[in-house]
């Protein structure tokens, strides 16, 4: 079992550190945020992630998992150092590498033994070479440093599950020895380890996220066409997915992708291409389609209700997807902005993300503690996140609470036949509307 340091305790760093300790490694997680570190030392996760607190606690208690703000202490005696700091988006869409550079310099200053440095953060092609040369430039002690690109594919909301059940682990290294070390570390997970060179590994991460984003924008465009020609996107996606070459996953039409990865990584990849004078036309279109899709519900509401001036809109769900409190790039922000601009009053509810939402949502949105309160007296309900709680609702709650039971569902939460048994006016994505119990009737 290895002695490992993980720098950065965001989603990627914390889940990586916790998972590595759970399979028996000795792990120290380093973060510059003192308060966060103090909370983590007590076993409190700074992020909402199902199952994480429990795994964190059992490894702290077993003495395998530590947290510190001190790089010197954190790097001391470690054979492997994982870099998992953020690479936020700059205004021009490129990845900001200042935190990566800082870690490289910290490693160079503090390591007194040979180390393998592993990059988990999503970084443009060539960054690992840059990290290695930066470390070598600032290196204080005479030690051997090798680098491995080991991109992370975990999904928020199921990050702990993914850490133990991923489809593959990508290990990119130009040193056979360093690659072997990382493959060995990951052996206890029992996940297939795909070995390649550093630059290909860096590219695999961007290409994977760009491809998944493309699938989503593609199905959203098909959904928009389905609405116009009277087809049902659910049946279309099911029929498409039966072709093994297409597959069923990532064909859920909705209001577009959000989150910390797809919006940032797609833009970064178009910039990487632009830097070598390549216009990545397909990916640019994927991004445009996604931005437009964020407006799908508001446009629908305007065409059904006419003016939104003075209307009360209940917003159900704020997080960019269920099982997370993450608001980064959530369509809820753009949607509520448009509603407010159109003169509507927005009353929002989310089971978990409300605290985070209050910091980033447009001013003027008000927040309530449950679905019923949000729906009370509303002229329209917008379903933005497909939380289980919303999917399981007895549909009569809409009719009972709302002034007008107009439901605009951005996540296709309900079965059309079930809706047809109620008095809901129901508009979803890529499916016929249900009005006064009749499927396919225009409002
Ligand atoms: C994603 C990748 O899945 C993961 O491999 C990578 O490491 C980080 O980015 P994440 O952002 O956590 O993970 O969420 P994911 O479940 O992939 O969903 C991303 C967005 O796409 C969400 O807004 C979701 O609502 C949307 N989505 C997903 C769809 O609209 N339709 C789909 O069929 C799937």
TL;DR of this structure?
By secondary structure, the chain is an alpha/beta fold. The protein has helices at residues 11-22, 34-41, 52-61, 71-75, 98-110, 127-138, 159-165, 176-186, 198-229, 233-241, 262-275, 281-293, 296-305, 331-341, 354-360, 371-375, 388-391, 396-401, 416-419; strands at 3-7, 26-30, 65-68, 80-83, 115-119, 145-149, 169-173, 193-196, 312-316, 345-349, 366-367, 380-383, 406-409, 425-427, 434-435, 438-439.
Distance between the termini: 64 Å
The largest sheet, given as strand count, sense and whether it forms a barrel, is:
8 strands, mixed
In CATH, the topology of the largest domain is named: Rossmann fold
The overall average pLDDT, rounded, is: 96
Total strand segments: 16
Overview of the structural elements:
It is a single chain. It contains 19 helices and 16 strands. It is an alpha/beta fold. The chain has two domains: 3-196, 3-Layer(aba) Sandwich (Rossmann fold); 197-442, 3-Layer(aba) Sandwich (Rossmann fold). An eight-stranded mixed β-sheet has the order 3-2-1-4-5-6-7-8, sandwiched between helices. The protein has a six-stranded parallel β-sheet with strand order 11-10-9-12-13-14. The longest helix is centred in the middle third of the chain and has 32 residues, at 198-229. The model has no long low-confidence stretch (mean pLDDT 96). Bound molecules: uridine-5'-diphosphate-xylopyranose. Uridine-5'-diphosphate-xylopyranose binds at residues 152-156, 209, 212, 216, 250-252, 254, 257-259, 261-262, 320-321. Uridine-5'-diphosphate-xylopyranose is lined by residues 152-156, 209, 212, 216, 250-252, 254, 257-259, 261-262, 320-321.
